[in-house]
Design a protein that fits this description.
Layout: E1 3-7, E2 10-12, E3 18-25, E4 34-39, E5 45-51, E6 58-60, E7 68-73, E8 78-83, E9 92-100, E10 103-107, E11 111-115
Parallel strand pairs: 2-11
Antiparallel strand pairs: 1-3, 3-8, 4-5, 4-9, 5-6, 7-8, 9-10, 9-11
């Protein structure tokens, strides 16, 4: 069974930073592209970032480009999202997902990120 468990969310002031983690199990993590998506209150899912299996390729939504960095450690079966320069509009539940961009085959339960002063 595929399991994706996110952590690292919380309350942060505008301009602050957070690092999200996602521990994977139940599949061969090193062979899958992985993504982060988010859902703001009252809105649909929004793709944030993707990274391919070997970390050679990454991609970001325009809204986070230059502020967020996706990475992974295949030995630890863990996906990361370093978020800097956080804005109130980044407030959302963040999910890690198996797959590239919107081609997701599994998703975690999410971690809440709230950006507020």
């Amino acid at each position: 069974e595929v399991q994706l468990v996110e952590s690292g969310g919380g309350l942060v002031q505008p301009g602050g930073s957070l690092r999200l983690s996602c521990v994977a199990s139940g599949f061969i993590f090193s062979t899958y592209s992985m993504s982060w998506v988010r859902q703001a209150p009252g809105k649909g899912l929004e793709w944030v970032s993707s990274i391919n299996s070997g970390s050679f390729y990454t991609d970001y939504a325009d809204a986070v480009k230059g502020r967020f960095t996706v990475s992974r450690d295949n030995a630890k079966k863990t996906l990361y999202l370093q978020m800097n320069g956080l804005k109130p509009e980044d407030t959302a539940v963040y999910f890690c997902a198996q797959g590239w961009k919107t081609t997701m085959t599994a998703r975690g339960q999410g971690t809440q990120v709230t950006v507020s002063s």
